[in-house]
């Protein structure tokens, strides 16, 4: 017999119990949950309460629902680890962790550099930059919204190349430019209507906003980007140096560094 009366406390209790099973590894990532009848019997709650608990877990990103025949509710895969100690493109990052990488190009074109872009890329305000906006996918699901800008004169005909994969690979193969160092700043921001729609998350849910300036081997900046990562699918990893190493890095750059990393 069901122990609940369909109230909020019963929904919260069921949600917590399901989360505990996931955290303990009893419900493994990628595994399909049992039927509503089986789960409701196991938890001792009504199917209505179970549906509400699963809906709350879906909003948190702990489970995902797949419609249609053969679908169901699945435990979400583990979070994607974003290691700020190395300069690596998203496709390579995902492949290293067993995810299938994908991209959707939202827009691509030539625009005039605003003040922030000009300062980061060491060009004059109004100079032309190539802007590429993409949705990055992990296992077919939205992971981040990426807005990257590059000096147009340095990378002519970039827009004529395939932009669905790694931009870093394209720059290395076509222009001989490779990322060696990057400065990144991170803050949590709420998802607005556009971001929520694009990333398939509830309105107002926290996103990780990462602003990055990337440098080549000669110390010249060649990329300025602003990325919005789903916080429910991303974990940030930072490897820190000792006090002497951090001080030397900051002094060498001569600027405030929020997060300063170099390749491993």
From TrEMBL:
Annotated ranges, domain HTH gntR-type: 8-78
Gene3D superfamilies in UniProt: Chorismate lyase-like, Winged helix-like DNA-binding domain superfamily/Winged helix DNA-binding domain
Signal sequence bounds: none
Coiled-coil residues: none
Keywords: DNA-binding, Transcription, Transcription regulation
Keyword Transcription regulation: yes
SUPFAM superfamilies documented for this protein: Chorismate lyase-like (SSF64288), Winged helix' DNA-binding domain (SSF46785)
PANTHER family: MANNOSYL-D-GLYCERATE TRANSPORT/METABOLISM SYSTEM REPRESSOR MNGR-RELATED, MANNOSYL-D-GLYCERATE TRANSPORT_METABOLISM SYSTEM REPRESSOR MNGR-RELATED
Protein name per its UniProtKB record: GntR family transcriptional regulator
UniProt source species: Sphaerisporangium flaviroseum
């Amino acid at each position: 017999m069901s122990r609940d009366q369909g109230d909020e406390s019963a929904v919260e209790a069921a949600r917590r119990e399901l989360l505990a099973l996931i955290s303990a590894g009893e419900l493994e990532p990628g595994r399909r949950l049992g039927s509503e009848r089986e789960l409701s019997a196991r938890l001792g709650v009504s199917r209505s309460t179970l549906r509400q608990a699963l809906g709350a877990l879906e909003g948190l990103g702990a489970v995902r629902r797949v419609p249609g025949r053969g679908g169901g509710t699945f435990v979400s895969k583990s979070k994607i680890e974003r290691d700020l100690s190395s300069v690596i493109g998203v496709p390579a990052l995902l492949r290293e962790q067993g995810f299938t990488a994908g991209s959707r190009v939202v827009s691509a074109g030539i625009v005039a550099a605003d003040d922030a872009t000009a300062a980061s890329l060491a060009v004059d305000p109004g100079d032309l930059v190539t802007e590429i906006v993409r949705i990055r996918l992990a296992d077919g699901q939205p992971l981040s919204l990426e807005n990257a800008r590059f000096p147009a004169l340095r990378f002519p005909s970039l827009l004529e190349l395939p932009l669905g994969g790694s931009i870093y690979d394209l720059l290395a193969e076509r222009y001989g430019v490779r990322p060696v160092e990057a400065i990144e700043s991170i803050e949590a921001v709420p998802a607005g209507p556009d971001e929520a729609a694009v990333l398939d998350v509830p309105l107002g849910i926290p996103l990780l906003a990462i602003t990055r300036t990337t440098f080549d081997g000669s110390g010249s900046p060649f990329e300025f980007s602003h990325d919005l990562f789903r916080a429910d699918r991303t974990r940030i990893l930072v490897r820190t140096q000792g006090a002497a190493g951090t001080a030397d890095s900051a002094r060498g750059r001569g600027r405030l560094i929020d997060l300063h990393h170099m390749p491993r």
